[in-house]
Every structure is written in C-alpha cells, then in structure tokens.
Amino acid sequence: MGRVDDLETALPTVFGAADLRSRGLTRAAARHRISQRRWVRVSQGLYAAAEVWAATAYRDRLAASALARQRNFHEDKVLSHVSAAALHGLALPLDAGKATWLTVSGGGNRPRRSPSVIIERATLSTCDVAAMTSASLPGVVARRQTSRGVLTSVTRTVADCARHLALPDAVAVADSAARLHVGVSDGLQDVIDRQVGWPGARRAAAAYRLLDPRRETWLESYSVGALHLAGTPLPEPQVRLFDKRRRLRRTCRRSLARVGRRRGGGRDDQVRR
C-alpha cells in the first residue's frame, strides 16, 4: 500500500468511503485528516481536501458532491433536478441548497428527503437519461472522475425543476436551457405533455409558457416569473425602437436625456448620439 499522502492526490474533488477503499485508504485516515483540518466533511459520508474545497465555486461544489454521492451510495439512481441542472451548466434556483437530487424509476425505493439527499420516484424513459463523461464536466468536477454516472437529459431536467421549484426559479432554469441548447423548447413540450397529471405539472406548464431565450440574465428571467405571479404585465425582452432610417428613435434619446437631467446630468444635446 502506498503512503496516504501519495494516494490523496488521486482522489476526486469530493470523495466518499468507496473512493477511499478503492485507493487503500480507511475511515480512520479520513478522521485523522479532518482532525488536522486538511480535509473537510462536505456532508454525511462525503469529504474534500480543504484547500481544493475552499477554491471551488458553489455550482461546482453542488456538481462534485452530487457525483460523489451517486458514485458512493446510489449507483442505481439517476442524478436529476437541481443536481442535473448544475452538471448541465444551467441556471440554479435562488436557494439551491446542498442536497443531491436523484430519481429512481422502479424497485423498492421510496421517495426520501433529507439535508443531504432528495430521492424522487418517477418514470424515466430512455430518452430522459444521458450518460456523463469526464470531457463533458467542468475541470474541477471532472478531477479524477473515474465512473460514468448517469443524469437526466436537459429537457427532462428542466421539466423536473419546473415541477418542483418556485415559478421564478423554474423560468430562470428554462430560459438558460433554451439559450444554451437549440431545440430545447420543442423537446421540453414533449416532456411536459408526458408528465400531465404529475405533481407540479401545472407549474411546469406555466413556466414553459413564459420561456424566452432572449432574456440574457438569471435576474431577468427570475423577475418575469415573479411579475407573473404578482399579476403585473410582463416586459418584452430585447426591444429596439428605430425610425424609418433604421436609427434609434429620437424619443428614446430624449427619454434618456430626461433621466440624465433628473440625476444631475446636463442638457439633451449632451446625450451621446
């Protein structure tokens, strides 16, 4: 057996008991390193090197933790919902939490919710599941990632998030998917149609009706969902007003100038044209 210091460099960003055993490490070694503050306990049964964890962004922490939990404890389940959104590079909800989301379609598994893991039981078609490769993962997440995990497809991920998250968060996730992946809108409609009658299906349908890839930021998308819930007329994204000569309409410039004067700016002719 090699020295622990030599083997530690071969560990993934987040690792568990199975990862330790496969590299000749023990739980006692984990407890020792935690006591020395060289490792941190990420969640129940999962650890990370302190320096690596401190330098890891929140999204990558969620993704790496999800991969480790599936790899060590839930190889028979599919990463889904917020965990899959993090791995797909989609927008995350305002409060994404720390739990790993998983879906199982059969067997004796029951739905489960705890601070570290959320397990949903639902039908998974072949088209709803995608395989992961190290090449498709962010660098820090792919670090020493040896197993090929599975997660829900982009469209299934969006639909599941839309059913379970608040509407503003659901719109943000859906808009980001439509911006990043061509054809998501049509595929998402197919998934939502298959989920009619499922818990949260009406919320998912409402999020789909609000989907618009022209929105450029998470805040813009989230605000649309919030405004919709408040019954406020929704703004049209990416609107440009031109005159007949294809120039920005002068009324818009004057409006900008008036705003500038209210904030202590100069005259209209000081507005750049």
Question: In words, what does this structure look like?
Answer:
It is a single chain. With 273 residues, the protein is α+β, with helices and mostly antiparallel strands. It folds into two domains: 58-229, no CATH class; 240-273, no CATH class. 45% of the residues lie in helices and 11% in strands. The chain has 13 helices and nine strands. The protein has helices at 4-8, 17-22, 27-35, 50-54, 58-73, 81-88, 139-142, 154-164, 167-180, 184-194, 201-210, 218-229, 250-262; strands at 15-16, 39-43, 46-49, 78-79, 100-104, 112-113, 117-121, 129-131, 150-152. The strands form three sheets. It has a four-stranded mixed beta sheet with strand order 4-5-7-6. α5 (58-73) packs across α6, α8 (154-164) crosses α10 (184-194) and α10 packs antiparallel against α11 (201-210). The longest helix has 16 residues, at 58-73. The radius of gyration is 23 Å and the shape is globular. It starts with a helix and ends in an 11-residue tail after the last helix.
